[in-house]
Design goal:
Length: about 110
């Protein structure tokens, strides 16, 4: 089933919790969101939070040591054998390295604005 999120230009017109939401089409219809405000999300995607229940997720937090944000990487339709190969060491490390570079770049831009 396809997933959708708000287009970048539509985000300011909605409550904050919908800015990072990725839902099925029918959920967006329940929120009365016009289809012109939505864009389809790729099958492999990053979702904000770690799902803890049908209606809940752990998003992260802040303490004296800094901030944490929780994300879930979704790789749909992956077969067990592919998962077994992918999740062992080298491939996960390469993915983490790429995400680390993007994270460093993002934080640098944030502090230099």
């Amino acid at each position: 089933m396809k997933k959708y999120r708000l287009k970048k230009e539509a985000v300011p017109f909605f409550v904050d919790k919908l800015a990072t939401a990725i839902y099925d089409w029918d959920v967006w219809q329940k929120y009365n969101v016009d289809d012109k405000a939505l864009e389809e999300v790729e099958d492999a995607r990053i979702e904000y939070g770690i799902k803890t229940s049908e209606s809940g997720a752990t998003l992260g937090g802040w303490d004296k040591n800094g901030m944490t944000l929780c994300f879930t990487l979704v790789f749909p339709s992956m077969k067990y054998h592919e998962h077994d190969v992918f999740s062992k060491g080298k491939m996960v490390r390469e993915l983490m390295n790429r995400l680390q570079r993007e994270t460093n770049s993002f934080v640098t831009e944030f502090y230099n604005e």
